[in-house]
Write a structure and sequence with these properties.
The chain is an all-alpha fold and 268 residues long. The chain has 2 domains: 31-151, Leucine-rich Repeat Variant; 181-267, no CATH class. It has 15 helices and no strands. 29% of the residues are buried.
């Protein structure tokens, strides 16, 4: 009966999520659910306490981060309020391994939570990961398409301005980062309009085609060819013609043989 009254309180108090001045009793009630034994959930949530990491196990926060999507799936999106604070605590953990673990699974969590909770609670965390260390950024980069496709069109377009930043890494020799970017851009072509592709994705693709590492260039040739196909299928042929002219000017008539070879490979 006590749990039923608590759940009734949670589901019917519309101001609960916006009230930041919880009393200890209200704070406890906000973590109550009826899917798994409450003591089990309380034990899990307590493991993110920084003092435990220092006295019990330095890896405990990483294990919590690894398990969090599974816990969220078990509890369901209606009980996300139980995990939200813990997720934000883990997302700002001092250990990059913890943040990296969350970065690799944020797209899975977005599927579990749905578009509204994702926009409100996950997008700010996602934006923070984009500015993090390369070890963390690679997690969001590897699943960039999986995450962005879950956002509304207007929100998705905001990330067009940030894609260029993936060309800059902490270590310039980290060519796998750029190769992954090229792979993701191929998938992202389906999410954006012809104008967005021409204005934002085209300059990145041309930059990747001139990369120093052949593995990056090979993926980029496929990217440019898919871009040509996508623009050709669009209703405005102007972008295709402009892109073809740029390919001829930049690569076909390049004074370096490597540039002319690039043109041939793209045609192939």
């Amino acid at each position: 009966q006590s749990m039923d009254s608590t759940l009734h309180y949670i589901h019917n108090d519309s101001d609960l999520s916006t009230n930041s001045s919880f009393s200890p009793e209200e704070e406890r009630k906000s973590k109550v659910q009826d899917v798994v034994p409450q003591a089990l959930l309380d034990q899990y949530l307590s493991m993110t306490d920084p003092s435990r990491a220092q006295t019990v196990d330095t890896e405990i926060a990483k294990h919590c981060a690894y398990s969090l999507p599974g816990v969220a799936l078990t509890l369901g999106r209606q009980n996300w309020h139980c995990l939200k604070d813990t997720y934000e605590t883990l997302a700002s953990d001092m250990q990059w391994k913890v943040r990296r673990t969350l970065a690799f699974s944020i797209h899975e969590l977005a599927v579990i939570l749905g578009d509204q909770l994702t926009a409100g609670d996950l997008v700010p965390v996602f934006n923070g990961f984009l500015k993090d260390l390369d070890e963390v950024r690679i997690g969001v980069l590897k699943h960039l398409h999986d995450f962005l496709k879950l956002l509304h069109v207007d929100k998705r377009r905001e990330y067009l301005y940030q894609l260029q930043e993936f060309l800059v890494t902490d270590n310039s020799r980290n060519w796998r980062f750029r190769a992954e970017l090229a792979e993701q851009l191929i998938l992202l072509l389906d999410l954006y309009s012809a104008r967005d592709i021409y204005d934002y994705l085209r300059p990145i693709a041309f930059s990747l085609c001139a990369d120093k590492v052949s593995s990056v260039r090979w993926i980029s040739y496929k990217l440019v060819s898919e871009m040509v196909k996508k623009l050709y299928m669009a209703s405005t042929p102007t972008f295709t013609i402009d892109l073809m002219n740029e390919l001829v000017a930049k690569f076909c008539r390049c004074h370096k043989w490597s540039g002319r070879q690039t043109f041939v490979f793209i045609c192939q």
